[in-house]
């Protein structure tokens, strides 16, 4: 059973303008990030460097409106890296992973775009590429904060150089009357850090250290959830998510 009252995760302001305005802001934020991850395994971040929210979610609508046979062209030898959808146990969920090369490279995103639109779609490619790099910037910032908070900032360069990115584009459709509203199976992210961004439709639940499921309120629209213990999705209406996994 999950708690009906949404869990109020720590909401941290990680805008570049705020953090660079005063060195004490940076050190304070580093401590807040570490404490949030130690206590909850995740936190919400308000990040003001993202391009217009509507652009990215309109791009996702365009992508998921493509025929299933087109989306099936996105394949991978790694589980859940290609197209994942139309699964009987979880019929609400569709996932497309940008795994052709690194997700933050122009070439990797362009290769994915060419698979979906052989005649090209420069607008989609530009939006996804810009978005992936902006969110990767947030990942780099949080990674540095965690290492500095533990006093091992000297490890940052080697860790950053070994990091690869997978951008997963996710859609949950509205359940039918005879369907369960559980959109995704219970799972734990195995990556060093994961960042989740979604439209303003709540449904995310996380498992606390006390082994209880709690609903998460992910407003405002420019908030991101970083890292987690365990998670699942409970949905009543259509929702879109973007997840950047960093390994």
UniProtKB/TrEMBL annotation:
It holds the Pfam family DIOX_N. One of its GO terms (molecular function) is metal ion binding. Signal peptide: none annotated. Residues 169-226 form the Isopenicillin N synthase-like Fe(2+) 2OG dioxygenase domain. It comes from the Eukaryota. This is 2-oxoglutarate-dependent dioxygenase aop1. SUPFAM superfamilies: Clavaminate synthase-like (SSF51197). Residues 9-84 form the Non-haem dioxygenase N-terminal domain. The gene is AOP1_0. Keywords: Dioxygenase, Iron, Metal-binding, Oxidoreductase, Vitamin C. Gene3D superfamilies: B-lactam Antibiotic, Isopenicillin N Synthase, Chain. InterPro entries: DIOX_N, IPNS-like_FE2OG_OXY, IPNS-like_sf, Iron_ascorbate_oxido_reductase.
């Amino acid at each position: 059973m999950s708690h009906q009252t949404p869990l109020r995760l720590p909401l941290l302001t990680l805008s570049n303008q705020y953090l660079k305005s005063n060195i004490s802001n940076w050190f304070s934020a580093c401590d807040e990030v570490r404490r949030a991850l130690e206590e909850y395994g995740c936190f919400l971040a308000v990040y003001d460097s993202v391009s217009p929210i509507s652009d990215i979610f309109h791009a996702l609508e365009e992508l998921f409106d493509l025929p299933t046979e087109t989306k099936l062209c996105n394949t991978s030898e790694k589980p859940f890296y290609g197209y994942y959808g139309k699964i009987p146990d979880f019929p609400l969920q569709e996932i497309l992973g940008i795994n052709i090369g690194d997700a933050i490279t122009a070439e990797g995103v362009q290769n994915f775009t060419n698979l979906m639109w052989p005649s090209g779609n420069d607008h989609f490619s530009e939006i996804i590429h810009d978005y992936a790099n902006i969110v990767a910037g947030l990942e780099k910032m949080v990674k540095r904060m965690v290492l500095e908070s533990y006093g091992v900032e000297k490890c940052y360069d080697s860790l950053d150089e070994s990091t690869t990115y997978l951008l997963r584009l996710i859609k949950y459709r509205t359940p039918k009357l005879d369907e369960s509203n559980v959109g995704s199976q219970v799972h734990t992210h195995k990556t060093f850090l994961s960042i989740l961004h979604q439209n303003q439709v709540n449904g995310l639940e996380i498992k606390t250290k006390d082994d209880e499921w709690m609903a998460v309120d992910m407003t405002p629209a420019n908030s991101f959830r970083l890292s987690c213990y365990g998670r699942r999705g409970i949905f009543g209406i259509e929702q879109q998510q973007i997840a950047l996994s960093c390994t």
